[in-house]
Amino acid sequence: MKPKHWFVFILLGAIWSSSFMWIKIALREMGPNTLVAYRVIFGLLFCIVWVSIQRVSWPRRFSDWVPLLIVGITNIAAPFLLISWGEQHIDSAVASILDATVPLFTILIAHYLLRDDKMTVPKVLGLLIGMAGVIVLMSKDIGASPSSLIGQFAVVLACIFYAGTSVYVRIKTVDTQPIFRSAIPLISASVIMWPAAFLMESPVALPHAGITWIALLFMGMLGSGLAFVMAFYLIHEIGPTRTTMVTYLFPLGGVLLGVIFLHEQLTWQLVTGAALIILSLVAANWQPGEAAAQTA
Questions:
Q1: CB 173 within 8 A of CB 72
Q2: CA-to-CA distance for 113 and 153, rounded, in angstroms?
Q3: Strand, coil or helix: what is 227?
Q4: Is residue 114 left, alpha or beta, with left meaning phi > 0 and alpha meaning psi from -120 to 50?
Q5: Is the dihedral of CA 272, 14, 210, 207 positive or negative?
Q6: 8 Å CB contact between 155 and 83
Q7: What is the pTM of this model?
Q8: What is the pLDDT confidence band of residue 294, given thresholds at 50, 70 and 90?
Q9: Where are the chain's structural domains?
Q10: Nearest residue to 275 (alpha-carbon basis) of 94, 133, 128, 93
Q11: Fewer beta carbons within 10 Å, N or C terminal of the chain?
C-alpha cells in the first residue's frame, strides 16, 4: 500500500475500534434502535455538509442509487443494530474482537463472487484459526446467561453482513464517488431506523447526559460519516480483503479502551481469543511468494 493508503487505513482503524466503547456508553441512556437512529442521522448530516462543500452533483440515474440504498440496509442498519443490541449483553472488548472476524468471512464470500480473490491454503488455515478464536471467546459464557452467547452471535452475524457488503460494493459501485458510497446508504439506513426506533422504543427522547451526546456525535460524524468515506475509498484502491484487514486494529483498541475506561474484566479467554483471531488474519493473508521476493 502507498503512504496515503496507510494513513487512511490507520485512522479508520482508530475511529472504528473506539466505536465499541462509545456504543456501550450510549446504551446506558437509550435502546439500540434509538442509538442507531441517532448515529445514522448524524452521519447523514455530515455527508450532506461534505457534498455541499465539495459542490459535487448527486447521481441522477436511479440505477446508480439502487445498489447504494441496499448497502444502507446491509452495511449500516442491520450490522449497527446487531452490534448495538449485542453490546447490551456482552462487553465492548468482546464485541471489538469478534468484529475482527470480518476479513475471514470476506475471504469466504469473495472466493465465490470475485474472480481475483480465490481461496488458498493460507486462507483456509486462517479461517480455521479464526473459528478457534471465536470458540475460545464464547467459551467463557457457556453455562452462564444465554443472553451473552446470543449477544456474541449477533455481533458475528453483523460481521457476515459487513463481509458480504464489502464484496458487493466492489462489484456494484466501481464508478461511484466515495462520498456517495457513504451518503446514499445513510439515507436508506435513516429511513429504516427512525421508524424502527419509534416503533420499538417509543417514546424516543433526547439524551440528557453530555457524554451520550459526545458518543452519538462521534459515532455519527466520524464512525458513520467520515469512516465510511475512507472505507469505500480503500475498497476501490486496495480491494475489499485488504480493506477489511483494518479490523486487525479492533482487538487492540477495543480491549484497551474497554478495560481502561469501562472497567471491563481482562480474562484469559479475551486475550487468547484476540491473539487467535489476529493470528488467523495474518495466516489468511500470508503470501510466502511475495515475502521471498521482497527480501531477495
A1: no
A2: 25
A3: helix
A4: beta
A5: negative
A6: yes
A7: 0.85
A8: very low
A9: 3-287
A10: 133
A11: C
| C-alpha to C-alpha distance for 17 and 64, rounded to whole angstroms | 31
Asked if 218 and 26 touch (Cβ cutoff 8 Å), the reply is: no
Cα four-point dihedral sign 261, 267, 78, 228: positive
Cell numbers placing 282: 495474518
Q: How far is CA 168 from CA 1, 68, 71, 157, in A?
A: 22, 10, 8, 17
- Is a pLDDT exceeding 90 seen at residue 73? yes
- Contacts of 153 by beta carbon, 8 Å cutoff, 6+ apart: 86
Q: What is the mean pLDDT of residues 181-200?
A: 94
Helices marked H in the chain = 3-26, 32-54, 62-71, 78-86, 92-99, 102-113, 121-139, 146-172, 178-201, 210-217, 227-238, 240-244, 249-261, 268-284, 288-295
CA distance 149 to 5: 36
How many other C-beta atoms are found inside a 10 Å radius of the C-beta of residue 71?
Answer: 26
Question: Hey, what's the cell of 145?
Answer: 446467561
CA distance 62 to 202: 34
Q: Where is mean pLDDT largest: 12-21, 30-39, 286-295?
A: 30-39
CB 20 within 8 A of CB 254: yes
Q: Is 185 exposed, middle or buried (0-12, 13-18, 19+ CB in 10 A)?
A: buried
Computed over every residue of the chain, the mean pLDDT equals 86
> Which tens digits make up the pLDDT trace of 194-205?
999 999 998 888
Q: Kindly state the cell numbers that stand for 277.
A: 483471531
CA 34 and chain centroid, separation: 18
Give 162's contacts (C-beta < 8 A, 6+ positions apart).
Answer: 75, 79, 99, 102, 105, 106, 244
